[in-house]
TrEMBL record:
Pfam families: ABC_tran. SMART domains: AAA. This is Phosphate ABC transporter, ATPase subunit. PROSITE patterns: ABC_TRANSPORTER_1 (PS00211), ABC_TRANSPORTER_2 (PS50893). Gene3D superfamilies: P-loop containing nucleotide triphosphate hydrolases (3.40.50.300). Residues 16-263 form the ABC transporter domain. InterPro entries: AAA+_ATPase, ABC_transporter-like_ATP-bd, ABC_transporter-like_CS, P-loop_NTPase, PstB-like. Keywords: ATP-binding, Nucleotide-binding, Transport. GO terms for cellular component: membrane. One of its GO terms (molecular function) is phosphate transmembrane transporter activity. GO terms for biological process: phosphate ion transmembrane transport.
Amino acid sequence: MTTTNPATMSAERFALETRNMHIYYSAFRAVKDVSFGVERNKITALIGPSGCGKSTVLRSFNRMNDLVPGARVEGDVLFRGQNLYAPDVDAVQVRRRIGMVFQKPNPFPKSIYDNIAFGPKINGWKGNKGEMDELVERSLRGASLWDDVKDKLQQSGLSLSGGQQQRLCIARALAVEPEIILMDEPCSALDPISTLRIEELMFELRQHYTIVIVTHNMQQAARASDYTAFFLMDADRAGQLVEYDHTEQIFQNPKDSRTEQYISGRFG
Ligand SMILES: Nc1ncnc2c1ncn2[C@@H]1O[C@H](COP(=O)(O)OP(=O)(O)OP(=O)(O)O)[C@@H](O)[C@H]1O
């Protein structure tokens, strides 16, 4: 049967969709009237000058803003066609299906193995030890870290290099089998080689997951994303979406002159 309902069609195409989304911190409107769809199994980069609301938008995608007193979202944020902010939606379940990797690698002060096993366990993991071993291996392989750590799974996650710690955090996110991975400047604390490794990893992960990344690094957005959303503050300091398109289009032939000025380094 062909689907003709526009809401269902957009849920099939988009992993996430915002419609007239406004985000406030108490009385301050940080993000104004943002509407766009995040394509499934693609990498979408959010770019724009400091303070334009990139992280705020990213955090709205898995209800991380709920943890900030005074923060509130208006409008719709749809995940599989369902409003993430509907009263019957459990934010903890949302965060299981929409994982997050932060700017600074933040492994738990536990063994490498337990860093991975922790999430599934608190989510009510029912398997046996052998199955957990498999899940740990699969997650570490998924984050391209298995070969580095397979002989030292009981060592502390904090003993790894910065780039390895970030891949451990990605493995930890994968362990709870999310559909979407949000990354907030995941490479800003890493050296160029570790950065490239994470970018290669993102390309691999794209086969199975949808990725949204906030980055300050324009080269990174240009080389490592499929779609780019460019945000800018208006006169009231509220972040607005200026342009959203294929990354190639944004970087080679942007429609809005402000995008052109930003990517050519004339402001921000
Ligand atoms: N917890 C908070 N409480 C109050 N205001 C906040 C909070 N977090 C962010 N803001 C404000 O919301 C606006 C958007 O911030 P946000 O961190 O989303 O921007 P950004 O584009 O990610 O910036 P940067 O690139 O510097 O990380 C800014 O004016 C910021 O001061």
